[in-house]
Amino acid sequence: MKLVVIGIGDCGYNIAAEFVRLGNKARAETGVDVLVRSYAINDDQASLNSLRKVGDKLLTIQLPAPAPSTKKIEVGADLMKTNGDRIIATMRAGEFFETDAFLLVASSAGCIGSGGISILARKLKDRYVNKPVYALIVLPLRAEANVPLCIYNTALCLKSIDRTADAVFLFDNEKVMSEASIKSPASNDAVNREIVAPFFDLLRASEKVDPRFLGTSNIGVGDIVQTLSGWTAIGYGTAQIPSSGFSLFRRSDSFESKGEESIKAMEAMSAALAHFSIECRLEDARKALYLLCVPSKSANINMTRSVGNRLRELTNNGEVRGGDFYGVSDIATVTLIASRITYLDKIKDYYERASTVAPEIMKRETPSP
Predict the structure, then answer these.
(1) Which residues contact 316 (CB under 8 A, 6 or more apart)?
(2) pLDDT, averaged across the chain
(3) What is the CATH number of domain 233-341?
(4) Where do the CATH 3.30.1330.20 domains begin and end in the chain?
(5) Sign, CA torsion 194/200/201/202
(6) What is the dihedral of CA 346, 350, 356, 360, to 10 degrees?
(7) In the prediction, which pLDDT does 16 show?
(8) Which 3 state secondary structure label does DSSP give 108?
(9) What would be the CATH architecture of the domain defined by 3-197?
(10) Residues 150-194: pLDDT tens digits?
(11) Are 263 and 248 a contacting pair, CB within 8 Å?
C-alpha cells in the first residue's frame, strides 16, 4: 500500500518524518516503495527546518502562528479552514494518482493538529473521492489527561475525526511510551519509532515484491481497505527463531514438527495482542486482519492457519482477513489490526469528562463585558 502521510502539529510532523525512515527501510530490504510522499505541517518554521536532513520524501508546509495564549482546538480548525486549500495546492498533485490512501497524523490534545486534522481530511475526501482517508491520533500522556483543556481538545478531536475519516488508528501515548522505554530510554524519537513500526510489514507485504518474499496467502491493498473502518487498533509482536543447525523450524512433514513450528508464530501473536496501540476487547471489533512474516525456510501453512483461527476465536468469528509474507531475518512477526471497534473505554471516558469541563473552558475563553 502506497501512502501519502500528512503530519499536522508538533506530534504529527515528527511521526510524518518517521514514516519517511520506514519507507527508506522498506525500499532497502524489499525493493518496494510504500511512501509516495510525507508532508509536515506546523506553524514553527525553525522546527520544520530541522527536518530537512530526513530526506527529499519529506516536504514542509508552514502555517501562520496562532496567538500565544490560544490553545483551543477551534483555533487549529480555523487555521486549516483558511489555509487548507492552499496546503493541498502546495502538494504535488501528480503523486496522488499513485497513492492508495492518505494517512493524516496528529495529537488529540494540542491546538493545530487536533483542530486541523478533521478539516483537512474533509477537504481531501471532497477532492479525491476514491482515495481512503485514514487518521492516526495520539492520545495524551497521563500528565496531560487531567488538564481540562487537553480533555476538551481530545474529545472534540475524536468526535470530529470519527465523523470524517474512513478509519482512525488510536495510539495511547502512555502505553506506547512505556513499551518504548523497555527497549531504550523513552525519548520522543523512540516513541515515534514505536508508533510507526507496526505499519512496516503491512505496507510492504501489500505491494508487488520479489517472488522470494511472497507467502502462501498474500495480503493486497484491497484487503487492507476492506478491513479498515472506524476506530482501529494495531499491534505488532515478534518471536526469535532459533538459528542453530537443530531448529524447531526445520522442514518436516511430521505432525510433531508442524506443531512445534506453529509455536513461534503463536508467541509472536501473543506479543502483538499485548502491544495493541490502545486497550480494546477484540470481541468489540467487527473487522480484523493479521499478517505473519517468517523466513521462507521456516514457513508452513499451519502457522498462518493457527494465527487466523485464533483471531477468529477472539473476535467471535468477526470478518477476518489475513496472510503471510517471507522475511529475511530469523524472526517471526505478527501484525494485527482490530477495526470497526464498537466500544472503547478510553473514548467513553474522554467524552464523559469533556461534558464536565466544557463549561469551564467556554467561560474562560469568553471575554469579560
Answers:
(1) 283
(2) 86
(3) 3.30.1330.20
(4) 233-341
(5) positive
(6) 140
(7) 95
(8) coil
(9) 3-Layer(aba) Sandwich (3.40)
(10) 999 999 999 999 999 999 999 999 989 888 777 766 678 889 999
(11) yes
